């Protein structure tokens, strides 16, 4: 059974208010893999993640989780949304929010068992959040909240963790910390990760596979398979160059190209 | 003060405070003050209509408050929820005005439906209050955890198959239930203020949800007991005392929170200075 | 002719006053209301009517001019809400609720004291529900003047108002005092709401503030168009409601008639429900003219609708 991918996205097309956002997008995520969903802003990454979660109905195509269509009660997917604003007035400790990951779907009041409480402690330790576990969720910084949300998603032991732009709005140091943390917990918990980002360079050391999204279409494979001039040129519909500089990747469009997806700069880091 | 009709007032007041504290915790958490005002205030029209048809006012109240909950919930899907709530409220009030103009006796009744007449509660009115109050508390207990997640992080809740819209409607129905229970005996004003001030105050004192809920019940109880005693002594309306005391409790809560923050900031600054000195 | 306009409709002085006062308050409320709805301050807008009513009942008790009570109550209430906090949406909601609860408590006290004084039977009824037919003609000039003031404030600060409801940071970056804009708007709202609740009652005041604006925002895409549609809708529903109320004296056996607020609110409610119907929206949804209504306003209204 191990060769059934955790996630199969099969020819998904989505239109939002008359505009085609995703056009026959297909890719797989295998168990335990770290996959980066890369594309510039507004290219449909959030829409794709929402479609995978069943929050957006696709016009055509299907999503399979461990070979089965997604059921709303399934807890094999964990999700960390792009932006959560928690009011500092909300009386909830970070610790309690993580525990809510265990039983938020349960009706009624049941006491949490000692094993469950131990699990909360362990996961707080694993995401390095013990320091601020007793502070209010709304009073934490962006990076601290990110860890708490990751812990909340991980604690129900999903097979796949979806993260929507977790690195946006973080300083470079925090970006490194979160990437390292995700890499560590993915190994430790045996969970596959699908992470969307507009900037791939921070992820290059840990990504097993990449899904490159532009103009509603996607190319997927290992980084070396996808980040190549011929693959990306075909995706963009015109010629682009890929440069490797000091371990960073630059995707470069020809000047004067009239294409919406690539701004008119001689060099462009994608993104 | 503890005899005859006052015993009924103490009993009903206590029950209302418990329900107000429990439901109010989520009213404040979700920022639902407007529906918590609109449903009780508009539902008086149902009682006026029932009066006109000579049926039990409880039925009229129930129909209007549950109708309002479902209507606000359904219309909010497609429009701005605060504008929808305002329109639902004025529509109910306008119907109430029409009902009142058709009936012959109005003035004292409007007054008691809006501002309450807890000192005149009869023994036969206690049973429905207790029964509906118990339904509210059980409903909140059942919904507790999913409602918590949908209130704090609706996106995450939706991804876990908990539809925020459905929980919004479920919660509005809980408010409608609390309304039906309390408006005929204590008035729309009392339940609204008891759901707001004490809960908001309690959330200033603790970081933990369970304790905040317990605290909001405790503050609501103190508020209503004090208000009853004051009203008994002074003969002024209970609603006045309840609203002023719950606003005062919120003021104290905010004051405590400000003092607490300042103390923490000072402590941090002290420890930083000490570190700087030792280096 | 007599089928529609019952005899005496045009010759009755109260009707003429009602038509004038109704049109003015509807116009001002609808225009202010567009900003109220765009800024998601419907709760505050409604609460201020009740707070103004408290001011009215206090003025009743102390023997002051009711108009002073209504407007003073509204402005004090707006100040209190701002003091508690309006910067975060959840706290804004709470601040409004706390002020509203306190005001209603005070209203309960004043109304109780009024009735124990025994002099003012019908005070509750009149304060809560008002009637456009009982407006004193001598207050008309004052109502007109203060309406103009409220309107002028809103027109003066319309751009910062719209911008700050889109993005607080963007507004601050332009050197605009966010708090000042908010306070000014609350005062304008308090004045217009206080006026309309004394002129047409607190129910109608909220209805005219929120209803036409909410409907017109669903139908139009630019600020100018929604102001126009809201104004027209407000005046039309008010006049039609007055006509129905007048005629209803002849419909109902008790010959007492139905309250005018019932008719106007019902018409507004129906208009709002219809504004959500697909075929109504399509009819309004014509492609925008290139030079109309300022591109920035247009974009902002669209953005706000997407967020709703």
Strand proportion of chain B, as a percent range, falls in: under 5%
N-to-C SSE string of chain B, H for helix and E for strand: HHHHHHHHHHH
Mean pLDDT of chain B: 88
SSE class of chain B? mainly alpha
What structural class is derived from the secondary structure elements of chain C? mainly alpha
CATH hierarchy class name of chain C: Mainly Alpha
User: Mean pLDDT of chain C, nearest integer?
Assistant: 78
The CATH topology of chain C is what? ABC transporter involved in vitamin B12 uptake, BtuC
Poorly predicted tracts of residues of chain B: none
Rg of chain B, rounded, reads: 21 Å
Share of helix of chain C, binned: over 70%
Query: Distance between the terminal alpha carbons of chain B, to the nearest Å?
Result: 67 Å
CATH superfamily of chain B: ABC transporter involved in vitamin B12 uptake, BtuC
Describe the structure.
The complex is a heterotrimer of chains A (271), B (279) and C (308). Chain A folds into 2 domains: 1-76 and 158-239, Rossmann fold, CATH 3.40.50.300; 89-154, no CATH class. Helices cover 27% and strands 27% of the residues of chain A. Chain A is built from 7 helices and 12 strands. Chain A has helices at 45-52, 94-103, 114-126, 142-154, 172-189, 223-226, 229-236; strands at 7-16, 19-29, 34-38, 60-65, 68-69, 77-80, 160-164, 192-197, 209-214, 217-221, 240-245, 248-253. In chain A, strand 11 (240-245) and strand 12 (248-253) form a beta hairpin. The radius of gyration of chain A is 19 Å and the shape is globular. Mean pLDDT of chain A is 84; it is low at 257-271. Chain B is mainly α. Chain B has one domain: ABC transporter involved in vitamin B12 uptake, BtuC. Chain B has helices at 5-30, 33-53, 57-76, 81-102, 107-115, 126-152, 154-159, 164-186, 188-205, 209-234, 238-278. The radius of gyration of chain B is 21 Å and the shape is globular. Helices cover 77% and strands 0% of the residues of chain C. Chain C is globular and about 60 Å long. Chains in contact: A-B, B-C. Chains B and C meet through helix 2, helix 4, helix 5, helix 9 and helix 11 of B and helix 2, helix 4, helix 5, helix 10 and helix 12 of C.
